[in-house]
Structure prediction request, 151 residues.
Amino acid sequence: MQLPDQNIIQQKMTVQIILTVLIIGLAAGMLSGLVGVGGGIIMVPALIFFLHYNQHQAQGTSLGVLTLPVVIIASLYYYQQCKRMGTPMDLKVIGLLAIGFVAGAYFGSKLAISLSTDTLKKIFAVILFYTGIKMLGWDDVLIKWIKGIFS
Prediction:
Protein backbone atom coordinates (compact mmCIF):
# COMPACT_ATOMS: atom_id res chain seq x y z
CA MET A 1 0.00 0.00 0.00
CA GLN A 2 1.37 3.41 -0.94
CA LEU A 3 1.10 6.57 1.08
CA PRO A 4 -0.39 9.62 -0.69
CA ASP A 5 2.89 11.56 -0.31
CA GLN A 6 4.73 8.89 -2.28
CA ASN A 7 2.53 9.30 -5.36
CA ILE A 8 4.72 12.12 -6.67
CA ILE A 9 7.28 9.48 -7.60
CA GLN A 10 4.90 7.75 -10.01
CA GLN A 11 3.56 10.99 -11.48
CA LYS A 12 4.55 12.13 -14.92
CA MET A 13 7.58 14.41 -14.83
CA THR A 14 5.97 17.79 -15.44
CA VAL A 15 8.00 20.84 -16.38
CA GLN A 16 7.52 22.12 -12.83
CA ILE A 17 8.86 18.89 -11.29
CA ILE A 18 11.79 18.80 -13.73
CA LEU A 19 12.70 22.43 -12.94
CA THR A 20 12.33 21.84 -9.20
CA VAL A 21 14.62 18.80 -9.32
CA LEU A 22 17.18 20.66 -11.45
CA ILE A 23 17.18 23.63 -9.04
CA ILE A 24 17.64 21.28 -6.06
CA GLY A 25 20.56 19.65 -7.86
CA LEU A 26 22.04 23.02 -8.77
CA ALA A 27 21.80 24.29 -5.19
CA ALA A 28 23.31 21.06 -3.81
CA GLY A 29 26.08 21.15 -6.41
CA MET A 30 26.85 24.80 -5.69
CA LEU A 31 27.12 24.15 -1.95
CA SER A 32 29.10 21.00 -2.56
CA GLY A 33 31.63 22.90 -4.65
CA LEU A 34 31.63 25.88 -2.31
CA VAL A 35 31.93 24.26 1.11
CA GLY A 36 31.93 20.49 0.54
CA VAL A 37 28.31 19.84 1.51
CA GLY A 38 25.15 19.54 -0.50
CA GLY A 39 23.63 16.08 -0.59
CA GLY A 40 22.45 15.73 2.96
CA ILE A 41 22.06 19.36 3.86
CA ILE A 42 20.34 20.59 0.71
CA MET A 43 19.02 17.65 -1.27
CA VAL A 44 17.43 15.66 1.53
CA PRO A 45 15.34 18.49 3.03
CA ALA A 46 14.50 19.86 -0.44
CA LEU A 47 13.27 16.48 -1.68
CA ILE A 48 11.13 16.14 1.44
CA PHE A 49 9.71 19.65 1.21
CA PHE A 50 9.25 20.09 -2.55
CA LEU A 51 8.68 16.54 -3.80
CA HIS A 52 7.09 15.14 -0.63
CA TYR A 53 9.59 12.30 -0.37
CA ASN A 54 9.81 10.51 2.94
CA GLN A 55 13.13 10.55 4.83
CA HIS A 56 14.20 7.15 3.49
CA GLN A 57 13.46 8.09 -0.14
CA ALA A 58 15.26 11.43 0.18
CA GLN A 59 18.36 9.93 1.77
CA GLY A 60 18.47 7.10 -0.77
CA THR A 61 18.09 9.57 -3.63
CA SER A 62 20.88 11.73 -2.23
CA LEU A 63 23.15 8.69 -2.04
CA GLY A 64 22.08 7.70 -5.54
CA VAL A 65 23.38 11.01 -6.85
CA LEU A 66 26.75 10.24 -5.31
CA THR A 67 27.01 6.98 -7.24
CA LEU A 68 27.41 8.93 -10.44
CA PRO A 69 30.62 10.88 -11.07
CA VAL A 70 28.84 14.18 -10.41
CA VAL A 71 31.60 15.84 -8.43
CA ILE A 72 34.58 14.77 -10.52
CA ILE A 73 34.99 18.17 -12.21
CA ALA A 74 34.91 20.07 -8.92
CA SER A 75 37.27 17.53 -7.33
CA LEU A 76 39.76 17.85 -10.19
CA TYR A 77 39.57 21.64 -9.99
CA TYR A 78 40.27 21.56 -6.24
CA TYR A 79 43.13 19.11 -6.82
CA GLN A 80 44.76 21.37 -9.42
CA GLN A 81 44.27 24.57 -7.41
CA CYS A 82 45.47 23.08 -4.12
CA LYS A 83 48.55 21.72 -5.87
CA ARG A 84 49.18 25.14 -7.46
CA MET A 85 48.89 26.83 -4.03
CA GLY A 86 51.43 24.42 -2.55
CA THR A 87 48.86 22.58 -0.42
CA PRO A 88 48.15 19.46 -2.47
CA MET A 89 45.39 17.04 -1.61
CA ASP A 90 46.63 13.64 -0.47
CA LEU A 91 45.25 10.98 -2.82
CA LYS A 92 45.99 8.25 -0.26
CA VAL A 93 43.73 10.02 2.25
CA ILE A 94 41.04 10.38 -0.42
CA GLY A 95 41.29 6.66 -1.23
CA LEU A 96 41.10 5.61 2.42
CA LEU A 97 38.19 7.95 3.08
CA ALA A 98 36.42 6.51 0.03
CA ILE A 99 36.86 2.95 1.32
CA GLY A 100 35.50 3.98 4.72
CA PHE A 101 32.68 5.91 3.06
CA VAL A 102 31.60 2.92 0.98
CA ALA A 103 31.54 0.61 4.00
CA GLY A 104 29.91 3.24 6.23
CA ALA A 105 27.27 4.08 3.64
CA TYR A 106 26.38 0.41 3.24
CA PHE A 107 26.01 -0.27 6.97
CA GLY A 108 24.41 3.12 7.60
CA SER A 109 21.79 2.46 4.94
CA LYS A 110 21.03 -0.94 6.47
CA LEU A 111 20.54 0.76 9.84
CA ALA A 112 18.46 3.59 8.35
CA ILE A 113 16.06 1.19 6.65
CA SER A 114 15.47 -0.55 9.99
CA LEU A 115 14.39 2.73 11.62
CA SER A 116 11.01 4.41 11.28
CA THR A 117 10.78 7.50 9.10
CA ASP A 118 10.00 9.66 12.15
CA THR A 119 13.02 8.37 14.07
CA LEU A 120 15.28 8.86 11.06
CA LYS A 121 13.95 12.40 10.57
CA LYS A 122 14.71 13.25 14.19
CA ILE A 123 18.24 11.87 13.99
CA PHE A 124 18.81 13.85 10.79
CA ALA A 125 17.50 17.06 12.39
CA VAL A 126 19.65 16.63 15.51
CA ILE A 127 22.77 16.11 13.38
CA LEU A 128 22.00 19.22 11.30
CA PHE A 129 21.28 21.24 14.43
CA TYR A 130 24.43 20.05 16.22
CA THR A 131 26.56 20.72 13.14
CA GLY A 132 25.19 24.25 12.82
CA ILE A 133 25.79 25.02 16.52
CA LYS A 134 29.33 23.61 16.32
CA MET A 135 30.22 25.37 13.06
CA LEU A 136 29.03 28.72 14.41
CA GLY A 137 31.09 28.24 17.56
CA TRP A 138 27.97 28.49 19.70
CA ASP A 139 28.70 25.22 21.49
CA ASP A 140 31.00 26.91 24.02
CA VAL A 141 28.43 29.64 24.64
CA LEU A 142 25.69 27.06 25.07
CA ILE A 143 27.77 25.00 27.51
CA LYS A 144 28.60 28.12 29.56
CA TRP A 145 24.91 29.08 29.61
CA ILE A 146 23.87 25.60 30.76
CA LYS A 147 26.58 25.58 33.45
CA GLY A 148 25.33 29.00 34.58
CA ILE A 149 21.83 27.63 35.07
CA PHE A 150 23.06 24.90 37.40
CA SER A 151 25.64 26.98 39.29
In short: Helices lie at 7-10, 15-35, 39-51, 55-67, 72-84, 91-114, 117-135, 138-150. The mean pLDDT is 85.
